[in-house]
Amino acid sequence: MIQKNITTQPKSIVEVTITVPWVDLQPNWDQTLQRMAADVELSGFRKGQAPMSLVEQQLGSRLQDEVLKTTMPNFLIEALKGTDIIPIDYPQYQLISFTKDNQLQFKATVTNRPKVTVGNYKVIKATRPDIKPVTDEEAQKVIDDLFKRWKVRQPSASQGGSINFQQSVGQPSANPVSQDAAAPDDEFAKAMGAISLTDLKTKIKKDLEANVTYNNELDYEENILQEVEKITTVELPDILIQDELNRMLVSLQRRVADMGLLLEDYLKGQGKTLEQIKNEWKPQAEKNVRMELGLAEIARMENVSISDAELQAEVDKIQDARVKKQFEAQEPRLHLRHALRQTRTLDLLKKMVGV
User: Do 251 and 199 share a domain, yes or no?
Assistant: First the structure.
């Protein structure tokens, strides 16, 4: 039977010292030796037929390394049974002592899921921002921008007739358009897929209003999450903060790429190093993690769950076959289930929150 000594450290770090008697380790040793022996070639013997004592001598430290690699995680799982420790990162192993026929002793360091305390979330207040009406001027600006880009795409009349916007991107149109229009007109609107210029303005204004409503909902959800963060108490593990900083960095890289820049050029233009940027982000990263953990704790208290059928239904919505195939693995499914659970919890909070 293994012996264990568990020591808790600040920031949810847990050190587990584990001692394994040889009698518990020997079956793993023998099985690993048998498996590796099949690929060992020794002079004078057919492959896989050499005596185990010679094979063991030939393998040397490789055999021990393989045994430790395959057994230490299992012994750690056994040591954590019956405890409230739930690792949220990959363990780090440190060998203390081990030789064949003797006990194994090693230390595993893990980050435990932190204890989260959330105040009375049922009485928090969050204000929904006012929706700013979309003006005719804003709709007209979009039309003017479309018209300018469309005009640039069109060949001149001297190049042989008129080609509308849809034709320029490979989609035939039944509405030839005059190139002489100095301002958006009905013919231009038809090239954009509308019936008339008035119809185009109506459609654009409707799209702008839908976008405003969507962003307003995001702002409202952010206000709720800000209130959750205020009433959440947790000692934040460093690994979660680093994970959030990395997520923020990926987001920045995407924005920079959209501008046609490399990250190093962007940082040079800002006169900052990557470490300086991360240090500036750290307070926000801590708030984001606290917010995420607070929402997850509310989900636990409210018994919010996502069934296997609901998870699969979400996967089935994915159109890209390559992306969909990724969700055959367990880890992406776990992340998706968590995201759906967080979304459902936020929807629950929106019904609770008063203004």
Answer: no
